[in-house]
Amino acid sequence: MRKVKKLAMSLDKNMTVSEYIAQELLRLGVDNVFGYPGANITYLIDAISLLPGIRYVQTYHEQGAAFAANGYSQSSGTLGVAISSSGPGALNLVTGIANAYCDSIATLYICGDLSHRYRKNSLPLRQDGFQSADVVSIVQAITKYAVQVQAPDEIRACLERAIFEATNGRHGPVLLSIPHWIQRSVISPAALHTFDIPASEAIDSLPERPAAEIVDILTRSRRPLILLGGGCVNSETKFAIKRFLDHNPVPVVASLCGLSAISHCHPAYVGFIGDYGHRHANLALAAADCLIVLGSRMDERQVGFLNDYRANKTIIHVDIDPSELLPCSEHYVPIWGRVSNFLNLLEPIALNPLVISKWGSLLRRLEEKYPVCTKTDELSPGSFLSGLFDRLSHDAQIFVDVGLHQMCTAQSGVLNNGKQLYFSGGLGSMGYALPAAIGGHFARPKHQTICIAGDGGLMMSLPELQTIARERSEVKIFVLNNHCLGMVRNHQQRTLNGRTFGSVDGYLAGDLKKISSAFDLKFFQIAGENDIGLVSEILSTQGPLLVEVLFPKDMMPFPACVDYPIQDDVHALHVLTEAGEV
Fold first, then answer.
1. For 92, left (φ over 0), alpha (ψ -120 to 50), or beta?
2. What is the pLDDT of residues 148-164, one digit of tens each?
3. Is the dihedral of CA 361, 366, 369, 374 positive or negative?
4. Is residue 135 a contact partner of residue 66, using CB atoms and an 8 Å limit?
5. pLDDT range class, residue 347, cuts 50, 70, 90
6. C-beta atoms surrounding 27 within 10 Å
7. 398 in the same domain as 544
8. CA distance 476 to 456
């Protein structure tokens, strides 16, 4: 590979817009930018590639770059960046942008645009020019800020605002569309207008009345429960959660996106809730008389059945985004602010330890009654995933795709000693995990990086196997292959009299062994319970590899976790409550 001399710059000197952007990203701590080239983004790619300390990482599809930026941000806790050319390149970013918006991931997307002489916007034409599209208008609904930079002297204010919007308040994606001629224009950054950062609107302290009301609710509660959502997975909030639980060990459940917010070995942790959640955790959610929702949407897929039980509980809902909060009512107390601030303010409260202990003991009995993993003689998702997670390093970061394997992972994956689990939660986009794992690997190259995908999701992100192969990235890819789109199949079987067009009939995954060979990746296959012992060898093997884990087409999540009536058990809990047992 040809060696190129790296350049270093200072804001006091004149430089091109592209050089300025590269230097600002580096100043923010961004050391990898993901993208795919095209004529209208070449100046920015060149500037990034010439600057010491920051690297341009070539993916093989713009969607892969967009998801890699997601994974980079999720892993590092800093800004993720992806770039593309104009038109079709920019449009290929859209799914990754939407994923970042739904899951509150701080990401910056920069796409090229046409120079003036190629534009025809004075004419009533459908298209402004070759490879053009009004991407700013297209992404308005899925970004916190999106703008086309109109002149070179706008770049500093536009970039500063974009970074501020992405990384403040509820995090999310932003987009800058920068015409080709502006990227190569020379500016003096120190002389440009800057963005005036607005004062924070989110409350940092509780008003006196709600604070007193919350204390009263908590001290009167006999069955308090905390629900952790995706807004709790940042390091500051995780620390605040641990500190609060050290003083008041209130039982805790987690949503899909909140699973990494607390160690699953913590004595207060109960389990995973939702449509595919743990039965005992969903029972705890229904039976609690005080539910403290921290950084989680009140989504029907995780708490929809609560409508039948809301009269029996008070809900305290804390979120940094006021749009997620419902109007205040007798049984619903909305709190607009940071979860960490809320917990820090509650820390002096001392709840009755005997009440908490009796409630926690009852929930542990429920867990014993409905165990998470059912042991079988044959290889099952539960036995494989529990065996895998047991063997992972304490610092492992696991990126999981969307589908049946995702729910099985959420049910069986025990996160302890710092393991982190990442999903495409709100959007639920197949094809997320592999490129996101690439981003996570570049963010934390010394940490063990795992990708768990289904056969369907892998086929959607197949080009990025070449990114891993080219970089020889230490990413271990586990494909749970049941030769069908299992979650769609299950839905079809329930609603379409067993017809499975597209999920089974007319669907065929590729030969993973041949695919591995084509990309020069080491290949392993796990086909039975006795093969689980191979996992230790797989994890200790140097370099990237692909592991096919074979399951039958009728693979299901654990029977104890789906399609169960909970009314009888909730009634039993209420009987125990009235009898004074809890």
1. alpha
2. 999 999 999 999 999 99
3. negative
4. no
5. confident
6. 11
7. yes
8. 18
Q: Which residue has the tokens 């645009």?
A: 113
pLDDT in tens, 287-313: 899 999 999 988 777 766 566 556 678
For residues 500 and 401, membership in a common domain is answered with yes
Residue range 193-217: mean pLDDT, rounded:
74
> What is the CB neighbour count within 10 angstroms for residue 425?
23
Mean pLDDT score of the chain, rounded to an integer?
88
What are phi and psi for residue 192, nearest 5 degrees? -85, 155
CATH number assigned to the domain comprising residue 524:
3.40.50.970
Please report whether residue 572 resides in a domain.
no
Confidence band of 560 (pLDDT split at 50, 70, 90): very low
Dihedral sign for Cα atoms in the order 531, 535, 540, 545: positive
Domain containing residue 296: CATH number? 3.40.50.1220
d(CA 499, CA 537): 41
Distances (CA, A) of 577 to 222, 280, 283, 312, 420: 9, 17, 14, 12, 36
Smallest CA-to-CA distance from 143 within 179, 195, 108, 168 is with 108
| Alpha-carbon gap, residue 178 to 112, rounded angstroms | 5
Q: 């049984």: which residue's tokens?
A: 331
Name the β-bridge partners of 248: none
- 569's tokens: 């058990």
Side chain identity, residue 189: P
**Same domain as 142, residue 77:** yes
Same domain, 187 and 212: no
- The confidence band for 204, taking pLDDT boundaries of 50, 70 and 90, is low
For 124, residues 6+ apart whose C-beta sits below 8 A from its C-beta are: none
Please state whether the predicted TM-score (pTM) of the whole model is above 0.70.
yes
Mean pLDDT within 102-114 = 95
> Looking at 191, 219, 248, which one is the last position of a domain?
191
185 shares its domain with 289: no
474 or 309, which is more confident: 474
Strand partners, 109: 82, 175
d(CA 187, CA 268): 56
Q: Is the pLDDT of residue 9 over 80?
A: no
Question: How far is it, in rounded angstroms, from Cα 493 to Cα 129?
Answer: 47
Which residues have C-beta within 8 Å of that of residue 51, sequence separation ≥ 6?
6, 7, 8, 9, 19, 22, 23, 26
Nearest to 103 by CA among 246, 263, 237, 299: 299
pLDDT value of position 5: 42
Task: Specify whether 235 is located in the same domain as 332.
Answer: yes
Its domain, for residue 253, covers 208-355
pLDDT at 127: 66
Buried b / exposed e along 78-93 (16+ C-beta atoms within 10 A): ebbbbbbbbbebbbbb
433 plus 546 within the same structural domain: yes
Can you give the pLDDT at residue 101?
A: 97
Specify the pLDDT at position 569.
Answer: 62
Mean pLDDT, rounded, for 326-354: 87
